[in-house]
Specification:
Blueprint lengths: L10 H7 L5 H17 L3 E2 L3 H11 L4 H11 L4 E3 L2 E3 L1 H37 L2 H23 L15 E4 L2 E4 L4 H10 L3 E2 L5 H10 L1 H14 L5 E2 H12 L32
Parallel strand pairs: 6-7
Antiparallel strand pairs: 1-3, 2-3, 4-5
Helix pairs in contact: 7-9, 8-9, 8-10
Length: 273
């Protein structure tokens, strides 16, 4: 697995769950987490002695320092004589890998579609192109007129991300839709977002407009002169809705990734992650 460029860390949760660590143990645990994330796999070795030597090396500790801190640091992992396994990091790695795979697939599909369209255009005669351009211009004008005069009569509760039109390159939203209204309310609170933003739709469907707006008010209250991204707002929403999950729950067997809900949005990685 390729090295990941960053790891998200919720500082407040990390400090709450690692308050019992010494300064040296803090450094050792962070180094272990960073190496685990960068390698994308658990710590393994053929025997316990070799494994402990590797862990001490990663933690930048002497053999004596490692023996003194090993029991404390082991609280954050599922430990066997030949492996140290971190449940939450594995879940987050799976989520990031899934998101990356989907992005690559979408990119390839888009490139293939553009190639096919180019080949189709190259095969058309000039006369056909002229006729098609005239027809497309007429159809486009009719579509624009219909969009500008359209009144939304949808009665469903799902967020509508298609009700957006473009006029002379500027984006114009239909404020009559839930997603359009929410986007407008967030921009009034210094959140930079447009109605077609996928995170906006997810936030509306998952948390509801009132909760999303309350989170925006919280961010705006901290710094009224700062403009925030939708990604920043999603972080606040997730942090409020998810309980602290950094304390590792002892288990005799490794949890299956399939048994843990993985969001498409790359979640935060922190202390006990």
């Amino acid at each position: 697995m390729a090295a990941l460029p960053y790891i998200q860390l919720y500082v407040a949760d990390y400090l709450a769950d690692t308050a019992h660590l010494s300064t040296v143990e803090h450094g050792a645990y962070l180094l272990l987490m960073f190496n685990y994330w960068q390698k994308g796999e658990s710590f393994k070795a053929k025997d316990e002695q070799t494994l402990n030597k590797r862990l001490a090396t990663v933690a930048r500790m002497s053999e004596q320092e490692w023996n003194d801190s090993k029991e404390t640091l082991a609280e954050f992992f599922d430990v066997t004589p030949t492996e140290w396994f971190h449940n939450r990091i594995e879940i987050e790695l799976s989520a990031v890998l899934s998101k990356s795979t989907k992005a690559k697939a979408a990119g390839k599909a888009s490139a293939s579609k553009r190639t096919q369209k180019k080949q189709q255009n190259d095969s058309e005669s000039p006369a056909d192109v002229g006729q098609e351009t005239k027809s497309s211009s007429t159809d486009g004008q009719q579509t624009l007129d219909q969009t500008l005069n359209h009144t939304d009569t949808d009665t469903d509760t799902e967020a509508d991300t298609d009700n957006v039109c473009f006029i002379n390159g500027a984006e114009s939203e239909n404020i009559g839709t839930p997603v359009g209204n929410l986007a407008k309310a967030l921009r009034e609170r210094n959140i930079s977002v447009m109605p077609h933003n996928p995170d906006l739709v997810v936030a509306l469907q998952t948390y509801g407009a009132d909760v999303v707006i309350a989170a925006a008010d919280m961010a705006n209250h901290k710094n009224p002169n700062r403009e925030y991204s939708m990604g920043y707002l999603m972080g606040i929403l997730k942090n409020q809705s998810e309980p602290t999950a950094y304390r590792q729950v002892p288990s005799k067997s490794k949890p299956s990734i399939k048994d843990v809900p993985v969001h498409d949005d790359s979640g935060p990685v922190s202390g006990r992650i």
